[in-house]
Specification:
This protein is an alpha/beta fold and 409 residues long. The chain is built from 13 helices and 15 strands. The protein has two domains: 210 residues, Rossmann fold; 147 residues, 3-Layer(aba) Sandwich (Rossmann fold), CATH 3.40.50.
Length: 409
């Protein structure tokens, strides 16, 4: 059998499940006798700076693997680095020189939409150079907005956190006998999957959130206020879930005129103010207690309330990626749903060039006609993904996560 060496990177925003995919790759690569398993520190940008580590040395036994699998964020660190569009850019030559130096046969990159762009570009350059390196993408994103897969690893755990937080907020908001509005701002630039997950908080004794607003449909301010008034006819406390990226009928984000607006390395608006904008609007109309809550990064790092289904699927696709790398390149490992009840899924592959730079949004027919809630179909799609709890080790009363001192260097 020919010698195999791989290098693995993580990129983009972190999730609770991305390290589970890394653990799956490492375990399977060891089983299949890889001579070297390298990890890029801070993704492709770190590799360009000659920063990488020996993962066989770092993850030595089953305990290390368990701690990696059940630790949030990114063990290898991350970056937001966009490869040039021109294949004659010297950065490609620099990267492939590094691959040659390390005798890399397989390249695994775990990330979201922009990370799949990296996999697609490296795969295309390899064809131009007649390189035998196989480039495999492994998906992750709490936003669930990657095309080609039923859902993305990381989404189920973030959805579980959103639903659990919404239920706890509902309990907190119920204690005072006064009129109030609570607005919960949830991540989601253009896709409302996470905000939709707030509906999973509903129980036989709590119907919060009362209203849900998603970016897939236009936001109407007057209709929003009328919706709240109708809820007030039935109860004194109104709880609203809203995506950070909701836009009016002209296509403008509610917070895009905010003095706090910023953009990331890829030009995406970093929203920080939708909830506050709506808080002001509601107070002016209803003159009652109004609070806005932004879940922010807590949605993506709460391993203590992760979904077992999410973690196990993430580990599974990492493991499967090693097998696919034998015969495939320029692909992303995807999750294929086989059934809802009982929930079953399997791994498959899709052409990464048909996934990169595209967005998977909620189908409009999964949003109610009033544009202020979701349908039963969307609820049933999300429900299996938050099932089960993860066995996290604790020490001195807090979670005992894997050592990440190497990221401080």
């Amino acid at each position: 059998m020919n010698k195999r060496n791989c290098i693995i990177g993580q990129s983009g925003g972190p999730t609770v499940a991305i390290n589970a995919s890394l653990a799956g790759i490492i375990q399977q690569a060891k089983k299949e006798g890889y001579e070297h398993i390298y990890g890029m520190i801070n993704g492709i940008k770190g590799l360009l700076e000659n920063t990488y580590m020996d993962l066989e040395e770092a993850i030595k036994n089953d305990d290390d693997l368990h701690d990696l699998k059940t630790s949030p964020a990114m063990y290898l660190g991350s970056c937001r680095y966009k490869l040039p569009d021109q294949s004659d850019d010297p950065v490609f030559e620099q990267l492939f020189h590094k691959f040659e130096e390390l005798e890399i046969t397989d390249f695994f990159y775990i990330g979201g939409n922009d990370s799949m762009d990296t996999v697609a570009k490296l795969s295309e350059y390899a064809k131009i150079m007649n390189s035998d390196i196989h480039f495999i993408g492994i998906p992750k994103t709490i936003d669930n907005d990657l095309m080609g897969t039923d859902h993305t690893p990381g989404y189920g755990s973030a959805a579980k956190y959103v639903a659990s937080s919404m239920l706890e907020i509902a309990y907190d908001s119920s204690i005072y006998k006064l009129k109030s509005i609570t607005i919960v701002e949830i991540m989601g630039r253009n896709a409302g999957w996470l905000t939709a997950a707030s509906a999973l908080a509903r129980t036989a004794y709590s119907d919060a959130p009362d209203l849900i607003y998603l970016p897939e449909v236009p936001f109407d301010q007057e209709q929003f206020l009328d919706d709240i008034a109708k809820v007030f006819e039935k109860k004194r406390s109104v709880i609203i879930a809203v995506s950070e990226g909701i836009r009016n009928k002209e296509g403008n984000y509610l917070d895009q005129d905010s003095r706090y607006v910023k953009k990331d390395a890829f030009g995406h608006i970093l929203h920080s103010g939708t909830g506050k904008v709506l808080e002001t609007i509601c107070f002016k109309r209803f003159k009652c207690k109004v609070r806005s809550i932004e879940l922010n990064v807590l949605q993506r790092c709460a391993m203590h309330i992760a979904s077992e289904t999410d973690i196990e699927e993430s580990f599974m696709i990492g493991s499967k990626a090693v097998g696919y790398a034998k015969d495939h390149t320029g692909v992303m490992v995807v999750i294929k749903r086989l059934s809802n009840d009982p929930y079953q899924s399997e791994a498959a592959i899709a052409d990464v060039s048909k996934i990169a730079n595209l967005e998977h949004k909620i189908p409009v027919n999964w949003i109610n006609d009033a544009h202020n809630d979701i349908t039963k179909e969307l609820y049933e799609y999300m429900y299996p993904l938050i099932q089960g709890e993860v066995n996290v080790r604790y020490h001195n009363g807090i979670p005992s996560y894997i050592n990440i001192r190497h990221l401080e260097k």
